[in-house]
Amino acid sequence: MKKIFWRVLIYFGVVLVVFTVFIGLIFTKFNRSNIVGAYKEQLGNLAASVAQRTGEAVKDKEVDTYQNYLDAVENFCDMQDVDIWVVTNPSSKSAMEEDYVNVDIETVTVPEETNRILRSAYSGKKKNYSKYDDIYQRTMLHLAVPIRNSQGDVMGAVLVTGPMEMQENTIVQYEKYMLICIVVGFLMAIILALYFSRQMVRPIIKIKESALILAAGKYEHKTGIKRKDELGSLAESMDILSDKLVAAERFREGQEQNRRDFFSNVSHELRTPIAVMKGYADTLADGYVNDPEKQEEYIRRIRKECNGMERLVSDLLILSRMQNPEYKIDMEVLNLIAVAQDAMRSIRILMPEKNLTGSVTYEDARSLIKGDYDRIRQLFTILLQNAVKYSEPGTQITVHIERRDGKIIASITDFGSIIPEEEWDNVFEKFYRASNHGQNDGSGLGLVVAKNIVERHGGNIFVKSSDKNGTCFLIEFPETSENIS
User: Fold this and answer.
1) CA dihedral sign, ordered 179, 185, 188, 189
2) What letter would DSSP give residue 363?
3) What are phi and psi of 185, to 5 degrees?
4) pLDDT per residue over 70-108, tens digit each?
5) What is the DSSP string of 430-445?
6) Residue 316 belongs to what H/E stretch?
7) pTM score, two decimals?
8) Sorting pLDDT into bands at 50, 70 and 90, what band is 430?
9) What is the DSSP letter of 80?
10) Secondary structure of 13-58 in the HEC alphabet?
């Protein structure tokens, strides 16, 4: 994470520093242009004013008045440390007379750059330049403007020379302030980069720590990050993962507890019949029973216990397959009435022993669902076998099928042992027997298998039991609009 921190810090800092320096340079350049430009405009206005007044004086032949004006201007320029020359255009046919000039340019040695801007002024153009001047021993601004007569001909020029010292000092002072601002901006950029880098990296570090804590098995840990950005979304995903892992761990613990209970119950269920069979077998093997009828009875009891264990193992195998998520059932369109009638025909062979009667009734002949025929038939067989087992002699077992609110509902009703209401939910648990069913044979897994079959078909199963209405198992399946192929 330190690499990311320093990388973000450097990137962010470089961007801020470059931006600060760039803005400082732009403002420095802008300020220099403004200061120099203002000074050029000031000298240019002075030169233009003198050129206009000179042109008017030449036109009106005002020598004395003009000389007084020129003296005043020179005095003013001396106070401003500015030189002003009024020179004639030697190449003009209408060159100014000596009475209107204060410098004979032909007798003065001037730099080539000054001659160049004078020639430009003679041609009617305003020119200027700034440069270190050996004569003045400092940087000077030279500016020349043309003087025109009433016909528009250039008869001379005004050359103004002013020092750039004050402007240079102002620029230097401004640059110092700007440098200070850049340094302060640089420090602030570093501080801001450090702050925002920490703000950005800190959640990443927390998320990393949370991931390690989750990897250590502490699934209830949360990141504690609340942000409305991508890092906040990542932290929220980590918290969701934490909730999922907690739920998965609880489910795993529940499954593990169920597995332990399952094996404990299986061991308990098998211990009794094994002990009984071992006792009978030992008695027969040791020759304690010589009566053939007693021997036959012992063998019959051993066979009965073997049949019970066979049913138990068979139910366990079926339940194991049904609870396996990878176990696939063959889905097809079925008429639930036909499946119930098929199961009822098979069970009727057990009814004469207790003088029971069974019937299948329905409200709509088209009661279609999607399911596995063998598994649905097994469901009805389990419930009908229980009905026969617990029914009172001479009573009736009924299966009724109806359509209601997009569902196919089947009810299996018998009149026999009543299940107390507080035990209705428990009868679908492994190895559970109702409190008043303890003397009947059974593995305690039939209703568990039945519930798994119903749930694998997207349905629900309930039980209701009362002295008046008997015991009724209600099964709900989703109705299908498909036709039987």
Assistant:
1) negative
2) S
3) -60, -35
4) 888 888 888 878 889 898 888 888 888 888 888 887 777
5) TT---TT-TTS---S-
6) helix 292-323
7) 0.46
8) low
9) T
10) HHHHHHHHHHHHHHHHHHHHHHHHHHHHHHHHHHHHHHHHHHHHHH
The pLDDT score that the predictor gives to residue 336 is 92
As a whole number, mean pLDDT of residues 32-39 equals 76
Strand order in the sheet with 138-148: 83-88, 154-163, 138-148, 127-133
Angle (CA) 161 167 168, round 5°: 105
Instruction: State the Cα–Cα distance between residues 356 and 393, nearest whole angstrom.
Output: 6
For residue 21, what are its two tokens? 């320096």
Asked whether the beta carbons of 103 and 85 are under 8 A apart, the reply is: yes
Positive or negative, the CA dihedral 59, 64, 69, 71 is: positive
> What is the C-alpha to C-alpha distance for residues 450 and 474, in angstroms, rounded to an integer?
12
Quote the CA–CA distance of 212 and 143 in Å, as a whole number: 77
* Radius of gyration over every alpha carbon of the chain, rounded to an integer in angstroms: 56
In sequence order, what are the beta bridge partners of 369? Answer: 334
What sign does the dihedral 400-401-403-407 (CA atoms) show? positive
Task: Provide the sign of the torsion angle of the four alpha carbons 223, 225, 226, 228, taken in this order.
Answer: negative
Residues 101-151 pLDDT 10s = 888 877 777 888 888 988 898 888 999 988 887 777 888 888 999 998 888
For residues 337-345, give the mean pLDDT: 91
Q: What type of residue is 469?
A: N
Q: Residue 310: what residue type? A: E
CB atoms within 10 A of CB 162: 24
Helix 373-390 / helix 336-347 crossing angle, nearest 10 deg: 40
